[in-house]
Amino acid sequence: MRKKVVLITGAAGEIGHALVKALARQSEYPLVTLDLQPLPEDIDGLSTHIEADLLDANVLDRLVSEYEFERIFHLAALLSTRGEFSPVMTHEVNVNGTMRLLRLAAEQSEWRRRPVQFIFPSSIAVYGLPDLETKRQYARVREWEWNYPRTMYGANKLYCELLGVYFSQYYRQLAAEQPVMVDFRSVRFPGLISAFTIPSGGTSDYGPEMLHAAAKGEPYACFVRPDVRIPFMAMPDAVKALLDLAAAPAENLSQRVYNVTSFSLSAEEFRAWVLKFFPQAEITFEPDLKRQAIVDSWAADMDDSAARRDWGWQPDYDVQRAFEEYLVPNILQLYQPA
Length: 338
Ligand code: SER
Fold this sequence. Notes:
Strand content: 15-25%
CATH superfamily: NAD(P)-binding Rossmann-like Domain
Structural class: alpha/beta
Distance between the termini: 48 Å
Number of helices: 12
CATH architecture: 3-Layer(aba) Sandwich
Largest sheet: 7 strands, parallel
Number of domains: 1
Order of helices and strands: EHEEHEHHEHEHEEHEEHEEHEHEHH
Oligomer: single chain
Bound molecules: serine
């Protein structure tokens, strides 16, 4: 008998770190985590951890022989800045990794005659606005607008959303008998900010980097112009979005990919919030024109009304609460001298 579990890939990453903690408190099934890296100390022991490469066929074979996946949170990915330095490998990890897992989920859905739920974090990086004038005009993009990403990561996320929809609705559509299909659900996140971890390899990283540098008493040079604006979200809300979408009754979902967002800030406004709590912080602007061009192509805000309507999405943290109640108190503790 295979053991029923919830699988989390990329569990040692930023979202994984927060999600594993939350799931350990509330999951009906034991957790199996997969990552190239060992788990950070504070979540070690909350799951059966497999330190391995998702692209290794033997690893997936072993997983399938041992476990029945009730739900998969597929978080493993290389982010948008990192992806531009090794686009072929990024495609390999982001697309082929997702394809392998979707096939696994499809096979298990058929075998157990019940859909495996597949939760996929997508990103604001799927948007690609051609210039700042268009970005001003389309201030709050809806899911289907401006899907012209200009990074490998963004293109990978957009394509994997489509693959997910395919495996949920059209897989083997010409077969005489319809298979039981995967239950794929995805949220497009804005830039995420955690109080406990610093992102690596993303292009929205200037926000969290600014804040963590200030808390550490280090100077920081922001790599985009002061007026560059994108939406952000505090990590507890990102976890909440994943869990709420997973828990939503299937009949309430009118689409499989949803925008979710919390608050939009320009880099200058982000700096002002940081200065409010760390008045000594030294934050300057030294734009890296290439990374800035990527953020300029992302929407200034996202319309998340479909998520609000279909599954009651609502962030707990607006910008004030995010800084006052989650980010600053936890960051102060994190960098407190022992
Ligand atoms: N935070 C991600 C990045 O910057 C966007 O999803 O790549």
